[in-house]
Design goal:
mainly beta; OB fold (Dihydrolipoamide Acetyltransferase, E2P); 5-stranded mixed beta barrel; 5 helices; elongated
Length: about 270
């Protein structure tokens, strides 16, 4: 803890710093949790901090010591001012890739972007966006996580898109750590759950096949892309259709809707009274 005068001086400095400012300084310490920087604008203490994910988009998996050295000069953009923690959070990636950073900062949630599917991975899809800067590492600046590919259940992303396909997506957020525009393909399509929820009501009896059995129950398909959960306590109750202690995938069952959660897109089911 510094003196009252030092703390007052630091507080006054932090109030002058804004997100988006580019600051320069000298590397003071390098640790696994981050790199501290003695800023030129405030020599009282090394209050600048570059997190391990904000060092460089071109050095994933590397350490700060591979990129920086104590006493070396660094330029970075302010991404947050932590007044309670008395720190300025910095991104070196921003100044290392200014054109790409500026492009990604200009994007707004809900904005629609088009591009070519550049690569399909088990964790998502890279999109080579039209009229965009290149990414220093990835095959595309746009990225779609698995849940944002489709409203419908699928096992492999190649069931939804194919490499070389031209698609249109909505912007979700600028991922500052990876230098990506996180996108949603399903946001450009009608949500089948909301459409289904408007057609049915609590207490309605429906029929459908079991699509998946889990330790706490089973999922029943009630329409194309629409599934509801029936809990184990209801599955083990004797019914005219099912005897024994459980159901199997493919079994046709009769269920009743007991809850429609449009916010979380969930249907709770039970057995109708016999």
């Amino acid at each position: 803890m510094g003196t009252v005068e030092e703390e007052s001086s630091l507080a006054a400095f932090l109030r002058t710093v804004n997100v988006g400012d580019v600051l320069t300084g000298t590397v003071a310490e390098i640790t696994r949790s981050g790199t501290t920087v003695l800023l030129d604008a405030f020599a009282g203490a090394p209050v600048g901090v570059i997190g391990p994910l904000d060092l460089s988009w071109g050095s994933f998996g590397g350490s700060a010591a591979d990129i920086l050295e104590i006493g070396g000069r660094v330029s970075a953009e302010v991404i947050a001012v932590d007044l309670p923690g008395r720190q300025v959070r910095l991104s070196r990636s921003a100044t290392e890739n200014p054109q790409l950073w500026a492009y990604l900062k200009s994007l707004r949630p809900g904005q629609r972007l088009s591009g070519i599917v550049a690569a399909i991975e088990r964790f998502g899809v890279f999109v080579n966006l039209d009229d965009r800067p290149d990414h220093p590492v990835f095959p595309g600046v746009g990225f779609i996580t698995m849940p944002e590919l489709s409203w419908h259940r699928f096992e492999d992303p190649s069931e939804v898109v194919s490499v070389g396909e031209h698609i249109t997506c909505e912007v979700l957020v600028f991922d500052t750590h990876n230098g990506e525009a996180r996108l949603s393909l399903r946001a450009t399509q009608p949500d089948p759950f909301q459409q289904f929820a408007r057609r049915v009501h609590v207490g309605q009896v429906l029929h459908g096949p079991v699509t998946k059995v889990v330790p706490f129950g089973a999922f029943i398909r009630l329409a194309d892309g629409i599934e509801g959960l029936i809990h184990l306590s209801d599955l083990t109750a004797p019914t005219p259709e099912v005897s024994g202690d459980a159901v199997q995938v493919g079994d046709e069952v009769t269920v009743i809707i007991i809850e429609i959660d449009t916010l979380r897109r969930r249907l709770a089911l039970s057995r109708p009274m016999v």
